[in-house]
Input
Amino acid sequence: MAPNRIRGGANEGADGMTDWCQERTAREARLERARVHADGKVVPAARVVDLLEAILQPGDRVCLEGDNQKQADCLARGLSACDPARVHDLHMVQSGIVLPEHLDIFEQGIAKRLDYSYSGPQGGRIAKMLYGGQIELGAVHTYLELFARYFIDLTPNVALIAGVSADRDGNLYTGPNTEDTPTVVEATAFKNGVVVAQVNAIVDRVPRVDIPGDRVDFVVEADKPFYVEPLFTRDPGAVTETQILMAMMAIKGIYAEYGIRRLNHGIGFGTAAIELLLPTYAERLGLKGKIATHWALNPHPSLIPAIESGWVSQIHCFGSEVGMDKYIRARPDVFFTGSDGSLRSNRAFCQTAGLYACDLFIGSTLQIDLQGHSSTVTTNRVAGFGGAPNMGSDPHGRRHPSDTWMKAGREAGGTGDPALRRGRKLVVQLVETFGDKLVPAFVERLDALELAKKLNLELAPVMVYADDVTHIVTEEGIANLLLCRTLDEREQAIRGVAGYTEVGRGRDHAEVERLRARGIIRRPEDLGIEPLDADRSLLAARSIKDLVHWSGGLYEPPAKFRNW
Amino acid sequence: MEWKPVTLSAAPLDQSWYEASARARLAGLLDADSFQEFIGPEQRMMSPHLPLFDLPRAFDDGMIVGHGLLEAQPVLVAAQEGRFMGGAFGEIHGAKLVGLLRAALHLKPAAVLILFDTGGVRLQEANAGETAIAEIMRAIAIARAAGIPVIGLIGGRAGCYGGGGLVAGTCARLVISEGGRLSVSGPEVIETNRGAEEFDSRDRALVWRTMGGKHRRLLGAADAFVDDTIGAFRAAALAAIPAAPAFDLATLEAEQARLEARLDRFGDCTDATEIWGRLGVDDPTAVPGLTTEAFDALLDRLPEGPHHAR
Amino acid sequence: MEKLSFRHTTQKALPGAKASAITGVVASGNLEVLLERNLAPDICAFEIDTAINGYAEVWAAVVADFVARRQPGGLTITINDGGARPDTVSLRLAQGARLMEMP
Output
């Protein structure tokens, strides 16, 4: 803990009176030191290091804004260029460890302790640094959990954030990628912290005010626009027949069966396949308007055909997606947009929406064990989970019914008065039995446990706990874990869809057939799914260019996804 | 439970040519159920060379030949499977096409249709493959001289490269789609020999605007640009048959003159977009994004009208 | 390359009258399956040429499951495999059987 956060005897002034304004005084001192580098609130990019060295104090809790999409990269470069003799032992509290600089600062001694949520591309390096003891790890959180702690015990002293533009008063336009910014600023600005924003441009008037200027202390005009990763773009050209088969099973065996209207999709080709089958396969099953109408979802390009075919009522977004801005502007009935016409995303609200207002989460994972625990952490990659643990959990605070939720609750059974039984959120793992390089997705024991042991973690990094998972969909079939009544049944249900992995081949064949007779395991043939339909011609779009055509030319894919 | 295939009930003509297998292309291209295969997979006429390299073989060696009807006209057809060995020419693969073209002299079909999908000659049987290319070109020349139009259709995953590009050059008419690429040296070959500064094979936009269907159509190397559907290729193949030029000295001299003029006019261009600009395209950078309809309209607007090869 | 052969007895013949069918393509991670109706109605034989050695046990399991689920009596099934994952093999076999059942 930063020392100035502790109240009590230490706060007593010389006259014996309690000083209740030490944080505010400290903030004023930081601002005073920093002002010499600024013209009003505006700081040129060349002065970033001076600015940060003036503001930061050793041991500060710092949020360097970065999540799975947008990055305050100019400020990250500035921070890693600070003098470790002046700026050191920082405690980083941020959603994403994504840029090399996010870890460089630990090697340099600028930062020491870390609390975060997601580290996709840096997963390998972060694992090495954790083993090497270069990072003192607090915890790997979910987004919402980390945001929550911003307001309780991980409140930042300094927030380094990113926006599209600002005026000279600090009014900030975060643009379509608003994401974490309002939450970070709320926690910092209203608790005596300092907020520094990097923007692509200083303008006379911002298109809309996403963050009011009185919450922003300094505005840095960045040397180049902040980086955004096109994380949610999946090229339809790479969707396989196996993924199409699994998508058909999910649509027919889960979406249709439970009447799923409110949902969230995780990232991956499996969920992209589902999105691309809505206007074709699901349409022919007569499901339009009955499923997949209300979404907590980033603007997935692969959902364009479904939107254009009139499937989707509305979508609230965690963040935006590169290339989708024009399309979103032209579809305000579907997306949340501001007075300027562009998307307003908000990760904290969207995570809450996914948690409480969606009846289904479906996503992929790297490993599932015999009970159904799953994790994307392996012994040499600590990827973090972002939002999946929240999306993929059954919220006990939910109090509104829906047919879907109630049906799942009935299937889960239980004892006591049926009138007092709650519903269940559907949490579906969509996994191919073998991943890249024939690595099995089903294992006796998660690598995450090994990692926890090696790093001496109190809590193993599990993405979705077994008691939250309701269904597992593989190319071999659907296992409905809600209907399992014993641990043995559960294990055989999982083995029964684990294909030709060791776990799958270790099944009790007779028991699996009994589970199939009870509908706990359902094969494609049990669902009336024709194997000949598992063909790419069933996809509503087969290439990125098809998506562009579906969008009427409004979707502008990033260069790496274009062949034109 | 009753099984009703969705895919198979969808119109085959709407399927993507690029995505379809060679067999599916043939099935959709020809009149329903009219395709009859010569040397089908059940005869297991496979490569004698691939086992020496410990490589898997295909029952048809990646080349499917036979006869069928196109709007009731008898045609001979050959289709390459671009996913097997990149559609490359080997001994059996090449011999099947040579045999088909020679048979045309006796069967006198309305046309021979070659569905190209090839990276060139198979390295593992290069001598046989190179020989096959020469024999195929000779056989095409003889068939065309006998008045049989030989039409090439290009729109597969492997494009039409190497020896396939040479063979395509001897066809009477070429139909190409956006996904189709036509060239002799492929992007990787150019980069390997001349460096990434000369040609960056990973720059997909560069590859497509240099070798892709639109550029080939604008240059007159292909005679029709079509949507990526089996139906569009079928319609274009039908239109190409009566449009095939006579294979005589006048045609060859005209073609020679056209190619010389083209080299004079565009030889100093460093990018396809420059060529398009000189052809009178107002906004060359917009060309790759155009739909087929808009692209055809553009061709009609060009001051000199579209070029036609051969 | 590895050659594998399996022979199973089935409880019934695969429905349909089609003499042969072919599905799939030999490519990396893919395979072609040739099905021919030329055996006694309670026999199904497999001849497999696979690009990847050492997976005989998995092939045996995939083939046995296919026979149990589809009862493909009367067929010789010949496979050229470019190194497909088991799920792709299962899917291709199921597709091949369906093609043989179609009118």
